[in-house]
TrEMBL record:
Family designation: Belongs to the CPA3 antiporters (TC 2.A.63) subunit E family.
A Pfam entry, by short name: MNHE
Molecular function GO labels: monoatomic cation transmembrane transporter activity
Keyword Transmembrane helix attributed: yes
Any one cellular-component term (Gene Ontology): plasma membrane
Membrane-spanning parts: 17-36, 48-71
Descriptive protein name: Multicomponent Na+:H+ antiporter subunit E
Domain of life: Bacteria
Highest classification ranks of the organism: Bacteria, Pseudomonadati, Pseudomonadota, Betaproteobacteria, Nitrosomonadales
Membrane topology: Multi-pass membrane protein
Cellular localisation: Cell membrane
Keywords assigned: Cell membrane, Membrane, Transmembrane, Transmembrane helix
Length: 150
C-alpha cells in the first residue's frame, strides 16, 4: 500500500501512467521484501518517540558544545578516537546507530567492525560512550531488539 501511495503522489493522481506504475510498484515491493523481509524485527512507535526525543536532546547538547568550542579564542580541544564495543546485534539497528552518531555534532564514525565502532570526537572529554549506550538502548527499544551484555 505504501508504494501505491508514493506512486500516486509522484504522478499527481493522473491515471495515464498506472501501467508503468504497476510494474514499478511490483518491482519496489519485491525488492523491499528481499532487502528487508517481514518479521525481521518489530517496531515500537513509543520507542521511536523516545529515540527522537533523545536524538534531539543530544543534538542540541552537542551543537552547543561545538558552537562553544568554535567561538572561544583559544579552543581547548582534545581530539581522539574512541573504540566502543557494541551491544546491538548486527543489522538494521547498527545501521541506525552509525548514522545517528554521524549526525551528532562533534563526532564521526570512522570504522565499524563486527564487534566495535571507532568514533572520532573533537574532545575526548565528551561523554561519548555514555551517549552511545543511551542511543543503543533507545534503538533496541524502538526495534524491540535484545542488547548483548558488554
Amino acid at each position: 500500500m505504501f508504494f501505491i501511495v508514493v506512486w500516486w503522489i509522484l504522478i499527481q493522481g493522473k491515471t495515464d501512467s498506472w501501467f508503468v506504475g504497476l510494474i514499478s510498484i511490483s518491482l519496489a515491493l519485491v525488492t523491499s521484501l528481499i532487502l528487508l523481509p517481514p518479521n525481521q524485527f518489530k517496531f515500537s512507535f513509543s520507542g521511536f518517540a523516545l529515540f527522537l526525543i533523545n536524538f534531539f536532546g543530544l543534538s542540541l547538547k552537542g551543537g552547543i558544545a561545538v558552537a562553544w568550542m568554535a567561538i572561544r579564542l583559544n579552543p581547548d580541544l582534545h581530539p581522539n578516537i574512541h573504540i566502543i564495543t557494541l551491544r546491538l546485534p548486527e543489522g538494521v539497528g547498527r545501521v541506525i546507530l552509525i548514522n545517528t552518531l554521524n549526525l551528532m555534532p562533534g563526532s564521526l564514525t570512522v570504522d565499524l567492525t563486527s564487534s566495535s565502532v571507532y568514533i572520532h570526537v573533537l574532545d575526548e572529554r565528551q561523554s561519548i560512550e555514555t551517549d552511545v549506550r543511551g542511543i543503543e538502548e533507545k534503538i533496541a527499544h524502538m526495534l524491540r531488539l535484545e542488547l548483548k551484555n558488554s
